[in-house]
């Protein structure tokens, strides 16, 4: 067979091999991008988000109003109602809200001293209760709980145990006061130094 014939004979095989290589590479590339996207989405779901400052201010103001105002005064306070509505509408993650309440020493101390019979206080506790139940029922509960524990410099298994028992407890209770017991316990367990930034990714 002449050289020209050999070239004509072999060329289609090279072209077919090149085409198959392109198809295989394209498929592998798509699979790799899909895995990266899944990993990115997963990390996004389990990470703790930094709360917006207006939201933090609304929580601080609400707790201070609860500590320094009577139930009668709060019942007629449009500012208190506005703050509660704002906190409710945000629907932030339960771990983000709980981490903020515990990390802010002043607000946490104030929160633990409020009269638990205050009706408006129960509104705030119920919002926290609902957000923690949403956490508990999510597919990312265990990973987010571990990140929450690391953020507070607490032993992960202890926090997991306390969170599971605590949330299971007040999940079926009408009165939300047991949340305060959970907050008090976690606050007492914290190490003296706790990072204030959410660098958990």
Task: Describe the secondary structure blueprint for this structure.
Elements: H1 3-46, H2 53-68, H3 71-75, H4 78-90, H5 94-103, H6 105-113, H7 119-136, H8 141-151, H9 156-171, H10 178-189
Helix pairs in contact: 2-4, 2-6, 5-7, 7-9, 8-9, 9-10
Describe the protein in words.
The C terminus is likely disordered. The chain has ten helices and no strands. It is 77% helix and 0% strand. It is elongated and about 105 Å long. With 201 residues, the protein is mainly α. Helix 5 crosses helix 7 and helix 8 crosses helix 9.
Oligomer: single chain
- The radius of gyration computed from the alpha-carbon positions, rounded to a whole number of angstroms, is 27 Å
Name the beta content range: under 5%
Biggest sheet statistics: none
Number of DSSP strand runs: 0
- State the low-pLDDT regions, or none: 193-201
Series of secondary-structure elements, N-terminal to C-terminal: HHHHHHHHHH
Helix content: over 70%
Overall pLDDT level:
79
How large is the count of helical segments?
Answer: 10
Q: What is the structural class?
A: mainly alpha
Cα end-to-end separation: 64 Å
User: How does the overall form come out from the CA principal axes?
Assistant: elongated
